[in-house]
Design goal:
With 840 residues, the protein is mainly beta. It folds into 4 domains: 173 residues, Sandwich (Jelly Rolls); 98 residues, no CATH class; 52 residues, no CATH class; 265 residues, Rossmann fold. 13% of the residues lie in helices and 39% in strands. It contains 14 helices and 49 strands. An 8-stranded mixed beta sheet has the order 42-43-45-44-46-47-48-49, sandwiched between helices. It is globular.
């Protein structure tokens, strides 16, 4: 039977002899004497009583001052450890006083316990600010109050407080005893503020939100979001060079830099109309640039005189009783809306529509002299990839339009550069006749593997830039002053920053401290950059980059993580029999003990992007490790960021090779790491990862529990019903349809192999998921129910493919936690508390 872990502060250690709490370790099933720290005491003074009763007809009562407390930092108080005899604490105050005692309770699992309170004085006991028990009478001897039930969630350092109201000169006593509900309880009694990584940490607190650099690079704007009580607020910091000079009001989170000058602009709506306002960081002055500007989204052109608008227009109204479907994507709420471009001249007030029609137009870039734009339209077609785009240039002086690329299926974005007549093109390797392809004969390009090209408008020649470059391009920013661009790319399990010399056509990785560059911006000449990012075991940090010199400007991780106790992360590589390498990482819990055995969770990519070294997020892997799991994540065949050939293995596979790699890697990891309990392995994934969860259970029995969030169970129904089904299938099922390749659609569909599933499976799905409709989970649930297998199905009402509403995100995540605790820790209490058995 496990012993309860008892980490103590130095103060507690010095007083070991004074408290039974610090006696020999007790079994977790024993009742534990809890001696909190005395953190506060203040004199109670009676107010002037002008009337014997208040407006509610109640007499004054000092016990009303006993209110729950929730905001005590034990590390910041002048706390003392009270003396205790057989767990009884005695105190006496010279005057009437309220004394506050506090201790923290922490556990890596969901736990319940009973708190027994005995006192001689009025008291209130609270957990995290919620009252558990109270009394208003004085007693001549210790009297037990009604027991209080406690519920503790993983990771969080729960604050237990006791407040006593004592009479001056009269002794008082109390005793607290805690009885865990389960035999192998891991409740820790803490005298500090240390906590494990928890859902509360993920859902609250501060995160970096956006960054932008002024045109000259002299100033940088950093916006931070803080979430409290499921509501967010924003702060925007203004830096001059490496120095923070001011904090701007919340409206400035929407601000942008004026072209060519270090001034910000934003809008303000008044009774007289919408104003365009500028802000000068040097003088800290605001100025009205223009009044009564049109509504809509816009940015200022490089000439500083015109606004380019993106205008949204509503399409045909939807029927109230019957409705004709107008296209494959007509289930999407905004499908019938269209976007168009317009120009507004600040000097003349002239508003000029630039595009018109029934097809949306999308702006790509504006020439440095503000005389020309590049825009595109798109249309559905009946050939792979089922949509194509036309790219055009437009003179803003004459509105003359010229085609740039027509019927293009592999270009996603076009940008001007500092080189005359040279454009930078983003797309996939199939662009320009496939000149960027670097694949063995017969393999099909994974079009999610981003590539870059240069295109000369005079010679009409394209040059591939990333053909021999394995990372997958994500976001590009181009300087129109110097022939250089910077971009981020999936670099295996990192998001790295790169510099592209357009003249020499050479790519160089920029050395950054962080594993994941989450956002970056640069000055017009690309001499000054700023970025923020995080790594596998730390939250956001903000840096400036000038040349090769990186300067840390804001270490949010340091303050945000100061009370976190983390485990560790290590890289790990599995080699398949054919020599293929499957790269991954594994996370160990805090206070890891290699002599023990731990349950393990296996996580893998959802779609084709790698599982990067993110620290925070819905599937934070160190958060799961903090609950006492070893967590293994893998980037098997099909993952982008490992080169074109590796990414192309995703095409027409649907579990082939990838699933075998996951199973083989999991088995090998267990053999190499004996601290993993091979009988208690779980797996989870979302979207394509949810499909993979289901498919894995049809080919192996190594998992003791599995979770499929928004998973695909039948390829044919997803292909036909999913909003992205047909488009995604141009990669995952290239040129394969239910009528020409039924073998793929049946043999690789978990639904058609449901009889082979014996693993307890949780299906969880948003009811409004248009990408992977909820029917994918419904049909798998029905199949497993008919087969008499262990399956649960939880719907998240009103949520789409990604769970975003904060209160629903909490419920969704706790459901995942509870499922694994039930099957991997043999503890169903959390699951049963959330989903009690119903007899229908």
């Amino acid at each position: 039977m496990k012993q309860m872990r008892r980490p103590f502060s130095l103060l507690a250690a010095l007083l070991v002899a004074l408290t039974s709490l610090c006696a020999q370790p007790q079994k977790a099933t024993d009742t534990l004497t809890v001696v909190p720290l005395q953190v506060q005491q203040y004199r109670v003074m009676t107010p002037f009583i002008s009337d014997s009763l208040n407006v509610q007809g109640k007499a004054y009562d000092a016990t009303d001052l006993l209110q729950p407390v929730n905001h005590i930092k034990l590390s910041q108080t002048h706390a003392t450890m009270p003396e205790a005899t057989e767990g009884v604490v005695s105190l006496q105050t010279a005057e009437d006083a309220i004394t506050t005692y506090a201790i923290r309770l922490r556990t890596p699992s969901y736990e319940q316990a009973t708190l027994q309170i005995e006192t001689t004085a009025p008291f209130v006991v609270a957990l995290d600010g919620a009252k558990l028990s109270s009394a208003t009478q004085y007693q001549s001897e210790l009297k037990e109050a009604s027991p209080a039930s406690l519920t503790l969630t993983p990771g969080r350092s729960h604050l237990l407080t006791l407040q006593l109201l004592t009479k001056g000169g009269e002794p008082a006593q109390y005793r607290l005893r805690l009885t865990p509900a389960k035999a192998d309880s891991q409740i820790e009694l803490r005298y500090d503020d240390k906590e494990y990584l928890s859902l509360e940490y993920m859902m609250t607190g501060r995160n970096l939100y956006s960054v932008s650099v002024s045109p000259t690079g002299r100033y940088t704007l950093l916006t931070e979001r803080e979430t409290t009580g499921l509501k967010s607020s924003y702060r925007t910091y203004l830096y001059q060079g490496d120095k923070l000079i001011s904090t701007l009001s919340e409206p400035y989170r929407f601000a942008s830099w004026m072209p060519h000058e270090d001034k910000l602009y934003r809008t303000l709506t008044t009774d007289e109309g919408r104003q365009l306002i500028s802000y000068d960081p040097k003088t800290q002055e605001e100025r009205i640039v223009a009044e009564q500007i049109p509504a809509g989204s816009f940015f200022i052109l490089p000439d500083g005189k015109q606004l380019l608008y993106t205008i949204e227009e509503e399409g045909p109204a939807r029927g109230k009783i019957t409705e004709q479907v107008l296209g494959r994507y007509d289930r999407m709420a905004d499908f019938r809306e269209r976007t168009f471009l317009a120009l507004y001249n600040l000097e003349s007030g002239r508003y000029q529509p630039l595009t018109f029609g029934h097809r949306s137009t999308y702006i790509h870039d504006v020439s440095p002299d503000a005389r020309e734009i590049i825009f595109s339209t798109s249309e559905d077609i009946t050939e792979i990839p089922f949509s194509q785009s036309n790219f055009y240039t437009m003179s803003l002086e004459t509105l003359e339009v010229k085609p740039l690329f027509t019927k293009e299926r592999s270009i996603s974005s076009v940008s001007y550069t500092a080189l005359p007549d040279v454009l930078l093109i983003e797309g996939d390797a199939n662009a320009f006749g496939g000149i960027g392809r670097n694949l063995p004969e017969g393999m099909v390009t994974n079009t999610y593997d981003g590539q870059l090209f240069l295109y000369n408008r005079r010679s009409m020649q394209a040059t591939p830039l990333t053909k021999e470059f394995d990372p997958a391009v994500k976001r590009v920013q181009v300087s129109t002053v110097r022939p250089v661009a910077y971009f981020t790319a999936e670099n295996k399990d990192r998001i790295s920053l790169y510099r592209l010399d357009l003249t020499r056509q050479q790519i160089e990785q920029v050395t950054t401290t962080e594993d994941l560059v989450r956002s970056f911006d640069m000055s017009e000449d690309a001499s000054q950059l700023a970025y923020y990012g995080q790594s596998a075991m730390n939250a956001d940090r903000f840096y400036s980059l000038r040349g090769k010199r990186e300067t840390l400007l804001y270490d949010l991780a340091k303050s945000k993580m100061q009370n976190l106790e983390l485990g560790s992360v290590s890289d790990w590589v599995h080699t398949m029999p054919n020599g293929d390498k499957v790269e991954g990482r594994y996370y160990l819990p805090p206070h890891f003990d290699e002599t023990k055995q731990y349950p393990m969770i296996v996580y893998y990519y959802g779609g084709t992007s790698p599982t990067t070294r993110f620290f925070e997020g819905s599937y934070s892997l160190p958060m799961y490790a903090a609950q006492g799991y070893v967590v293994l994540t893998l980037n098997p065949s099909g993952t982008t960021g490992f080169g074109q050939e590796y990414a192309a293995r995703h095409v027409n596979a649907w579990g082939k090779v990838t699933a075998d790699e996951i199973v083989a890697a999991t088995r090998q990891f267990c053999q190499e790491h004996p601290y993993v309990n091979a009988k208690k392995i779980g797996c989870m994934g979302a979207s394509y990862g949810g499909f993979m969860t289901q498919y894995l259970q049809t080919i192996t029995d190594i998992f003791a529990a599995a979770i499929s969030h928004a998973g695909i169970s039948a390829l044919s129904s997803y292909w036909g019903e999913g909003t992205w089904g047909i488009g995604y299938s141009t990669v995952a099922s290239y040129d394969s349809y239910p009528w020409n390749n039924p073998q793929l659609y049946t043999e690789q569909s978990p639904l058609f192999r449901a009889d082979k599933i014996h693993t307890p499976l949780l299906l969880i799905h948003g009811t409004d998921d248009t990408n992977v409709p909820i029917g994918e989970s419904i049909q798998m649930y029905n199949a497993l129910k008919i087969l008499g297998r262990e399956v649960e199905f939880v719907k998240v009402h009103g949520e789409d493919h990604i769970i975003t509403a904060p209160e629903k995100k909490i419920e969704w995540t706790n459901t995942l936690f509870a499922w694994f605790q039930k099957w991997l820790k043999d503890d169903p209490t959390w699951w049963d508390a959330r989903y009690p058995e119903a007899h229908l």
